[in-house]
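Board notes (copied after class):
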Amino acid sequence: MKKALVASLLVLLQSSLLFAQTKTASRNDPEAKKILDAVSTKFKSFATVQAAFTYKVENAAGKVLSSKTGTITMKGTKYRLNFSGQEIICNGTTVWNVDKAANEVTINTLDASSGMITPQKLFSNFYDKDFLYVLNGDKKVGAKVVQEIQLTPVDKSKNFHTVFLQVDKVAKTMYSTRVLENAGNRYSYTVNSMKTNLPAADALFAFDKAKYPGINIEDLR
C-alpha cells in the first residue's frame, strides 16, 4: 500500500502532473505556455530546491480518504523524497526505494530514456509534448494569488483525464497540482514551503547502508 502511495505521488511530481467537464482544450493556449515556461526557467536557475508538501487523496464526492505530508530535496538530477514511511533516493543514475517498515531497500538504475518518473520533470517542458493546456485565470488562495492551468493528456489511455496546476503568480513557482482519475479519485499535493539554493552535499543523494542496520537489499540493476 505504501509503495502504491509513493508511486501515486511521483506520478503527481512528474508529467502525470497535471480538465474537467467545463472546458476542453483543442489546442494549446499561448498565455498558459508563457506561465509554464516561466516556472520551468525559474526552477532551472536554482542550484537546489527543498520543499515540504501535503499529499491528499479524495473520492469522486470530494471526501478526503487520506492526507499525508512529506519533504523533498532536489539538486540537478539528484533528489531525496521522504513520504509516508518511505524514502526514495536518487544520485542521478541509481534509485534506492527504502521501505522503513519492511526494513528493505530496492535498487534500480535510472533510465532517462525510458520515461521513468523523476520529480524534476514536473518543472521541465514536458507539457509541450504530452499535454494540451489552457489558462483558467487567477484565483485567490488565502493571501496568495495563483494562476490555474488545465492540462489534458494527449494520450487518452492514461488513467487520468485532467490535471489542474496552480502557479504562484508572484513567485512564479508551482503551488499545487490536482489530478482527476478516470476511476473518480482525485490526487493532489500542495507545496507548504519552499527553500532554494541551500547547501546540499552529494552524500545526501546516495544510500548509506550503515544508517539502516540489518536492512534487506533487493538489487534489480
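Comment from the instructor: The chain has one domain: 2-18+21-215. The chain is about 15% helix and 45% strand.
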